[in-house]
């Protein structure tokens, strides 16, 4: 074995990007972005294995050496240290395998896949609110379809979407438990669905305003407040609430607004931003909003961050209107169908909807930006009372 303990504490601290050997298979990998990790190389049954030993910020040189010796000893016994570590984790899980513990572990394992590392809590909240209050202390191996039915029956018909999410999350947790080596019933959630029966909940569409009535409403948004201006942009662009609320000046380049994929419904965690052409009216509204900007965001809240999802809805509630902001997307889509000759794929792209098969989309090399610009300019004319009432032609 090569000499051990080659690195000093000072060398560890001052080492540049690259891989630095401490000896005996222990390495420090420093990345260009400033991060650093320890890893151990060992050979077991003629196969080289590399196992991470933690970040430098969490594991000191002394601790890394102790860990390295621990796993080198395992390798000398002819055991794969990575598999042995996994086995020990599974045994530890068995000693505390309540649903809450396993659910929390499953959540931690999936954080990287979730928007903002799941900090908003939306992934975990259906479990936290509707399953864990009854089943948190139950060993996951003992959970049956009857237990799941009992937990979700109060909301199965009244809050169908939440119940569906809770059932989905619970299924993921059960699969995670199985991956840990626990003897769980992977069919428990499907059996519970059979016991609960088909949901009687009938989803209601969000009320939308007739496109003919939008100009009169738009005219009432005549105050240069954050709420009025945000709602005006939502109407004019057809965008959903979240991209509007998180609109920042660096997303705008001339007459094009590029919405990051993470702010688009259905594109979280994927590549592919979405471009929105900005009409003359939109650019004027943005100029009015700039004095309100804080930390780059055009629509900051009174205290911290950006305005809430409910801010624009409350304005319409106070006016005793049945419609809600999201309904203006339907207003725009109906206007596109009834007053323009826009092809289906262009109109759907205005709404940021996906059209065609995966193969068709792969060969389509356009997002119809120019056609959409013309349509949204005419929509702005209609909204501001300048429209002619004639059919908008793209030709």
UniProtKB/TrEMBL annotation:
SUPFAM superfamilies named in the record: DNA breaking-rejoining enzymes
Domain named Tyr recombinase: residues: 204-376
CDD domains: INT_P4_C
Alphabetized GO MF terms: DNA binding
Superkingdom of source: Bacteria
Keywords associated with the record: DNA integration, DNA recombination, DNA-binding
Annotated transmembrane regions: none
GO biological process, one term: DNA recombination
Family: Belongs to the 'phage' integrase family.
Protein name per UniProt: Prophage CP4-57 integrase
This protein's encoding gene: intA_4
